[in-house]
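User: what does the whole thing look like in 3D?
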Amino acid sequence: MVGPGILLVCIFVPIVGAIIVPFLGKINTGLRNISALVFVLISFISAACALPAALNGTPLVSSLELPLGFSFSYYGDALAVFMAMTSSLVAAIIVFYSFGYIEKYPNQNEYYSMVLLFIGSMMGLVFSTNLIFIYTYWEISAICCWRLIGFYRKEDTVIKANKAYLITVGGAIFMLAGFIGIYIQTGTFDLLALQGQGLDSWIVILILFGILSKSATLPFHSWLPDAGVAPSPVTSLLHAAVLVKIGVYVYARLFLVNFHLDVVWSTAIPIIAAISAIVAAGAAIVENDIKRIIAYSTISQLSFIFLGLSSGTMIGVAGGLLYILMHSLAKGGLFLCAGIIEHSTHTKDIRQMSGLAKRLPVTCVAFAMCAFSVMGIPPFGGFFSKYMVIDGSLLSGQPWITAVFIIGAVMTVIYLLRVFCKVFFGELSHPDIKEGTWEMVTSVAILGIMSLLAGIFINIPSQLTTFIVESLGRW
Amino acid sequence: MPAYFATSMYAFMGAPLLVILVLTLAGRKLAEKWALTVGYIVGIIQMLTSIIAIILLWQYNKASITFSQFWSIQANDGAAYFSADVFSLIALFCIGMVTFAAFYTAKTMIGKKAFQFTNLMMVMILGMNGLALVTDLFSLYVFLEITGVSSYVLISINRDNKGLEGGFKYLIMSAIASAFILVSLALIFINTGSLRYEDISAISSSWMELSNPILILVAFVFLICGFSIKSGLVPFHGWLPDAYQSAPAPVSIMLGGIVTKMVGVYAIIRIVSNLLVESDTVVNTCFMVLALMSIIYGAVAAAGQKDFKRLLGYSSISQIGYIILGVSTGNILGYIGAIFHFFNHATFKTTLFVNSAAVEQQTGLSDITKMGGLHKQMPITGTSNIIAFLSAVGIPPLAGFWSKLFIIIAVWQTNGAIIASIALVASIFTAVYFLRIQKNIFFGPVNEKFADIKEAVKGFKLTEIALSVITIGCGLLFPVLLLLLQAQGIV
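Assistant: Here's the predicted 3D structure for the full assembly of 966 residues, as structure tokens:
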């Protein structure tokens, strides 16, 4: 059996790795790359080791008692372990992909260091049960995101990095105000002590500011498409593995597991999400920059997750959680494919590309598989999660909102097919390009196949999410 | 408690005096060679002594250690004596730390004036150490003037127009502040017959019943005005950015790092904690309003500055606002937050001034709009700048976050959600000017003009690394600090 120390390993191996990696990079770049990957894999394996205990209903916990309600613990329940495994798995693939993608650029030491710190802060966030520690990891991830978006150090990339930082940190400060509000009322930041409390509406609003800005939901979404100026593995990390999922996770952790929300929010949040889904999907249809299209698609898909989580029905919540996994795999894959395309053609404008399927066959197939998953075509994983979310929303008695989301889903099909056809079919526009390096191609192939396998063996992840929802004990 | 303990306290007053004496007797040539080295050794000794003293105080479970310089403590009423509690020792530690940073970076910046510089600095340190240790308002005033006089000269030590202007402005404003403070002391003395902290705290709760309550009220107003000028609170802040900008680099490290905090903020904390036993009084409300104005004005004004040092001056105004805000709550959490922020501000603001000196030395510029992409050539300076600024914004897990959190919780408890939220949201403005400066100096595209610039010299690098380690370390060891406070029964 494993002890609670495994959680600390999961969190601190990447964080300490982030400090070591730049020094390794001065000795040997190959060594640095391999060890970065190893650190992330250790994180994944140790998260997996915490799974049996969580499934047995005896989650691992390692805690420290502090005065003034600052006591904190790292708590590995099924939700946290599920999230940690999803993130670290996708992150490991992205780090592997980076070997090929990033090798020609300067500042690689900082790149690997920040990516590791990013993943470490994600692990810390999912296992923390203290509001202040959640906020701490939240802010560390914002710093990493700021450095990584500005990776190319050009005037406009740095401006966009600053924009992303200001919006997410601004939201986080409002969220901190909400946390302090909880503290003033109860005298503690410890979530385990706050289990089952109700929350005042103004606190919920303040916390939602933070969550919506981190998860790039309307009206705080505008930084996410702009963040596409970052290298593709970074955008993939932001969209699929770490950043935007932080908001969704904290929503689940606070409002599903810990606090009881008023009934009014189970209507208000789906309405916000519905607007976000439609507007972002519309934006994706008219955009011509491949990364911006996929970014708007993320904003739109995140609304589906919020819809599921806020539906208040068992199937909806389970679907929302399943959606996190499916979206991570598929969206990570889409961005990595976009990275290969950009790397080969040196453009992001889809009007200038066509017929690339002849030169990039593996990328084309992987892109198709991931796109089908995002669209929700059976038997890909995305179908099941989308179905469950829609079903949950219907069961909660909101047919009109559900109808809006179905329109959003149709629009998803439209814009992804548009990108796919423009880029891969037709007359060949770039005759002299090659497929990406073997690391890059392998990564996208793995993500594409996993999107398919997750659908074929849907019973495994869905059992896990169903277990998580059942252990909440509300339905 | 061992006797050597009280004796060792004399070092705080004796060491600077001894250095002046030795350097003057040693002769010009020798003194000029060794002055700066002696200076930073004084800084190190002061840091070590204060840490050891804090540990000993805790070990012997005492609140403070009392000692007198020239006469017996048991002498008649009104006799002056020194007393060191944990807060004074923290302040003394900060003085030592900033002194070390200033002397360590002065080597390449001061040049031929090393002898004068060191002597004046020692006078300044003597003044600040005295401020930290005194127990009555009159001695406080005397040491205030000692610190002030040496800083006017130090600001204009290069005798250029800019320095003279800044020094003159500071002199005039300080003179007005001194007049306010002195009149206020006189008024208090008329009513109480004593200026000792403990005697004043006895009357403060019942001043309405005194024969001339209106005079006491006037005294309070003058006191607030005087110390607000000294600490640069809005609307008394006009001199501060000028003085910071025009002083030579090591002097602005000293001014920005510790001097304004000692003569203004430290004095305010001492007076408020002794003068006002009850919270929610007139004085507290006044300070709260001044603090909020400073926080917002300082942060907004800093966002529009072009000069690195001037920007840091406005940022100081805003951060001092936070410290005073914590003090104005009058509850224990607020005081802990304020003292901790006092320490943090000394650390990160010193780092930032060292960075500005390093950048200025390498590029010859202090206009941030003309730089760019220096991070590649100056990675250590760039990184320590990020750490210091994140601490200033209040980003966890750095030390600045925890102190700000305490202050905001305390404000929320005593003054309600609105004021606390204003203070919290003002951090966003801090983030704005931080991002702006980071983009213009370090992060952006590489400027061809600066292609052959190198990392700062060794003295700068070491100081930057040491101070950054303190900022990160204090932040990460925060749970330990909480447990310590709990063990002392404070929280």
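In plain terms: Chain B touches chain A at residues 373, 376, 390, 393, 395-397, 401, 405, 408-409, 412-413, 417, 420-421, 424-425, 427-428, 431-432, 435-436, 439, 443-446, 479, 482-483, 485-486, 491 (CB under 8 Å). Residues 399 and 473 of chain B are 8 Å apart (CA to CA).
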